[in-house]
Specification:
single chain, about 450 residues, alpha+beta, BirA Bifunctional Protein, domain 2, Rossmann fold, 5-stranded mixed sheet, 18 helices, about 20% strand, elongated
């Protein structure tokens, strides 16, 4: 019995056209990662469940994809939990591994496990898929790629400057106008202290992180339902309504902060970034409501949004002072950012920023008129490839119309026709598909023509 082909909800196949676009984005990222001194690593798709649980907050833990134990996973089941239908208590009996939720916690595990093989500060980049049991919607998937850059082993604020410049470099090269929002968790901790809710800081930031999704009224309602008093709601209204320059915002926050030492430390770090950041093309905006609702952030936090496009953030990250401490390596400060590949692709499609990608596909197709001609074309195509030209020979000697239709569908700009007469004369017909014009070229002329085209295309990039 045949099975109707389908995909799990929140996952996707990528056709060649889409993959070319994704590869372009990744290529730009990797080039810039290397420029800033980052080295590549990879980690497994799955991690021990204990390594992931408790690192993303209560809501994050619920979105972790658990993997059933192999074999008879019910054999050692917690009968009481099973009888009570207590899924949370039951999990440890039937699952001890999970798909990674992000790349940062696995990176912390990696650093601790390989600390004697690394030198610090250690800067890494990583481009791999992650999985979250989230509700799929536009720009949000259950399987998606993260493109991360992290540095561990230094608490220097020069790294904060580096990461903002890295964001700017990537999005400028991709042609996406963005605003880089930034804040500091120490500032939020100072605000919580001044509002008398230090012991409920995590609850407060989790609610604050929903501001973009449910709006100010929605967050105020959630805070009220959780028992936060009018003072907290009044404080939230003040910081949510801040406008003006970055310096003006920080001055207002300083007046609301009171004598909080941690809050003033956060303001000092924010001011350092503003005063010392070299000129960038992107907009840098202090956003005191930015919370990044992950428990491991302790200092600077970032979020990047594309201008003029209705889309969630296309990047985010921040400083984590002791993430490796959860795996036994204390006092190793780190900072990292992530690029949302899937959302970046959607933004670039909406802004029509892939118009020059045709040049990265097949540039030349050799028509197949028979075995002798095809073998000659194969040798000629091989010469072109050695010269950096993307070339292919149609594998079957079939009707010319079918081969030309193939070239049109693949958007191949040039077709070379070498039949019996062309072989005898040593002159080959080159057809430009967009105009239909045809010209005869010798072997040398043909090689020169396409290597010249390739050099011109590379100059455009």
């Amino acid at each position: 019995m045949s099975v109707k082909p389908s995909l799990p909800k929140g996952t996707r196949d990528f056709l060649p056209r889409e993959m070319l676009r994704r590869e372009r984005i990744i290529e730009v990222m990797k080039t810039n990662f290397k420029k800033f001194g980052f080295s590549p690593i990879e980690t497994p798709a799955m991690e021990n469940l204990s390594a992931l649980t408790g690192k993303y907050g209560e809501e994050g833990d619920r979105l972790i994809f658990k993997i059933l134990k192999s074999g008879d996973y019910l054999k050692k089941i917690d009968e009481k939990a099973y009888g009570e239908r207590n899924s949370m208590a039951l999990t440890s009996s039937i699952s001890d591994k999970a798909l990674r939720y992000d790349l940062t916690v696995p990176f912390a595990r990696f650093v601790v496990q390989h600390q004697n093989e690394l030198f610090f500060p250690f800067k890494r980049y990583q481009v791999q898929p992650v999985w979250r049991a989230d509700r799929p919607q536009k720009g949000r998937f259950r399987e998606f790629y993260q493109c991360d850059a992290d540095a561990v082993g230094s608490d220097s604020l020069l790294l904060e400057l580096d990461f903002i410049m890295l964001y700017n470099a990537v999005f400028t090269e991709l042609g996406i106008p963005v605003v880089i929002k930034f804040n500091n968790r120490k500032v939020l901790a100072g605000i919580a202290e001044s509002l008398g809710i230090t012991e409920r800081f995590t609850e407060f930031t989790v609610a604050l992180d929903k501001l973009d999704k449910i709006g100010l009224e929605g967050v105020l309602k959630e805070l009220a339902e959780k028992g936060f008093d009018d003072k907290v709601q009044s404080g939230l209204k003040k910081i949510a309504g801040l406008s003006g320059s970055n310096d003006n915002k920080l001055s207002v926050i300083e007046s609301l902060m009171g004598d909080s030492m941690i809050g003033r430390k956060g303001l000092e770090e924010l001011r350092y970034v503003i005063q010392n950041l070299p000129d960038i093309n992107s907009t840098l905006e202090v956003d005191i409501t930015l919370a990044r609702g992950l428990d491991y952030y302790t200092g600077a936090i970032f979020e990047v949004k594309a201008k003029g496009v209705e889309m969630g953030s296309v990047g985010g990250g921040g400083r984590y002072d002791d993430l490796t401490g959860i795996f036994g390596l204390k006092n190793l400060s780190g900072i990292g950012i992530s690029f949302g590949l899937d959302r970046i692709q959607l933004v670039m499609e909406e802004l029509d920023l892939f118009s020059d990608l045709k040049a990265e596909g097949t540039e030349v197709l050799f028509v197949n008129f028979g075995e002798e001609e095809a073998l000659f074309c194969t040798r000629l195509a091989s010469e072109l490839r050695r010269l950096g030209v993307n070339a292919e020979v149609y594998p079957d000697s079939t009707k010319l119309k079918k081969q030309m239709d193939f070239a049109n569908k693949k958007e191949i700009p040039y077709v070379v026709l070498i039949g019996t007469e062309e072989l005898k004369k040593g002159e080959f017909t080159v057809r430009e598909m967009s105009s239909g014009e045809q010209h005869a070229h010798t072997r040398i002329e043909l090689l020169e023509k396409f290597t010249s085209n390739t050099a011109t295309a590379n100059d455009r990039h």
